[in-house]
Amino acid sequence: MTQKVLVVDDARVVRISLGRILKKLGFEIIEAENGKEAYEAMNAHPDIALVMLDWNMPVMNGYEFLVAMREQERFSENPRVIMVTTETGMPSMLKALAAGADEYIMKPFDESLVCDKLDIVGIAYNRE
């Protein structure tokens, strides 16, 4: 069964870029433009294995989404969450990790970095 990944970013180009990498690795991609859409997607697709989450977005930012998602018992430990953001300061990283993020990618990213982070969080993917 193909694992689902929710890619959450207000920048379409980032969703496309990250989506291409993840599709190549064998994942099914679900997209959201902000935390509110991501929250709706999580409830529509409770089998999402991984969330790739931007921090700075309108409507509901990534941090707010992360906190709201982890407050739900069924999402308290899964899915895995990797922040993919320009928030590069250690306080932001620590805040996200404390709220339930599993890993952190600083933009810009490439396929190799995404694979490294998937390995760290224990998400299997198709290696070519």
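The above is record 1. Record 2 follows with the same two-line structure.
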Amino acid sequence: MRTSRTSVVLPLPVKRALRTLGQDMRDARKRRRIPEAVAAERASISRTTLVKIEKGDPGVALGLYATVLFVLGMVDRLADLAAARHDALGLQLEEEDLPKRIRTPRSARRGGN
């Protein structure tokens, strides 16, 4: 949903999730005792962009969030976000769609001819 060329209207849960992600990333940086300037330099971004990420700004590219996670040593968890084992609804829907019976193809029943 767009309101103009530059602004995107995000659902409130998405805004909250990004804000929480940003705060958690900031806390992780602080726990590692990495100053803003050092984290920004390691991620090859400006301090201003790092601050935006740590505030959960939706206008910052996902790749930059991922790069900061890399700097924090947490990027491996990013690839796991939508993994099938965490997709309870998707697995449930897939299970409901399983066939009731599985039949052997006719050619295999006749000895492969």
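The helical segments are 12-31, 36-42, 47-54, 62-71, 88-96, 106-109.
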